[in-house]
Amino acid sequence: MAAPVRITIPSEVAAFVRPGTALDERLRGADGVSTLPPRRQILLLFCLCQDAVPEVRQRALHTLASLSDELFSALNGWDDLHPSLLHTIAHGAGKRPFVRSLLLGHPCLSDATRAILEQPGAAETPAVVVQEEPEAVEHGDVEQEPAAEEMESAAEETGEEEDEESEEHLSKYQLAQSLGIAEKIKTALTGDKEWRKILVKDSNKLVSSGVLKNPRLTEPEVLTILKSSVQNDEIIRIICANKEWVKNYQIRKALVENTKTPLAHALRFLGTMSEKDIAAYAKSRNISSVIATQARRMLATKKK
User: Is residue 209 part of a domain?
Assistant: First the structure.
């Protein structure tokens, strides 16, 4: 499993977010610290948008959404941003024309965030990122350094070198908690393998079934979905109706064994199974009794 995403932050930001920081101090940071340079203000608010306390998260997102266009312009030229930071900004201020244009032109913007920004009205309702247990991110650790000139300036003011600390931040799973239904559907239809793995488990059938309509979905992924416990009736219906997928023997076999597969489809696919698998179904207690009975009949017919 890859390591969680890590972002290296300067001591001025870490002072508000490191473990053990008092709630009052975190709330003060969430309300905005005007003495920080623009980039560090944005980084601090991003960090506090992941705080365990809802009030801190809400205040930080509200403050982020209310930052001036001039302050957001500090993102220009900051080409090593982690996409999670841009995603959070999109939720807080993505409806503003200047910020939206700025984000869409940023080289670090993820495909999922771009899809959200390009969907009319999708970013209009700020969403609070919910703190969850972090999951692994495909690219492992990502370190984010403040601009060199800002670090030098801070060192001159304090008379000491920067003390940087690594903080864990958003995985795609955490980002998914902040998406609205329309945003999730859009991401399900266009997202990469990691997004598909997350959103196929969504409780909303429009979201989870949207993953099955993603043109990048592979047959091994379809097989994994069938063997998992997250599928719903709509997912099974879509798989059964896909002529290319059901050409795959393993997918047909998984459909026969899945208790959510409509009986008519399961019986049809049972007729395409090997004699060895049919014999196993005839003795199995883990599949529908109707399937087991039909398997026994098929075996009996072949012995005649």
Answer: no
Per-residue buried b or exposed e for 207-222, using 16+ beta carbons within 10 Å of the residue's own CB: bbbbbbebeebeeebb
Q: Is residue 53 located within the same domain as residue 165?
A: yes
**CA dist., res. 27 & res. 299, Å (int):** 70
> How do residues 163-207 score in pLDDT, each as one tens digit?
443 333 346 777 777 778 888 898 899 988 888 988 998 888 999
Number of domains in the chain: 2
pTM for the structure as a whole: 0.47
Distance in Å from the first CA to the final CA of the chain: 53
Considering the domain architecture, whether residues 242 and 93 belong to the same structural domain is answered as no
* Residue 92 contacts residue 61 (beta carbons within 8 Å): yes
Cα–Cα distance, 109 to 290 (Å, whole number): 51
Q: How far apart are CA 167 and CA 169, in angstroms?
A: 6
Question: Domain containing 259: what range?
Answer: 218-303
| 150 and 246 housed in the same domain | no
Check whether 158 has a pLDDT greater than 50: no
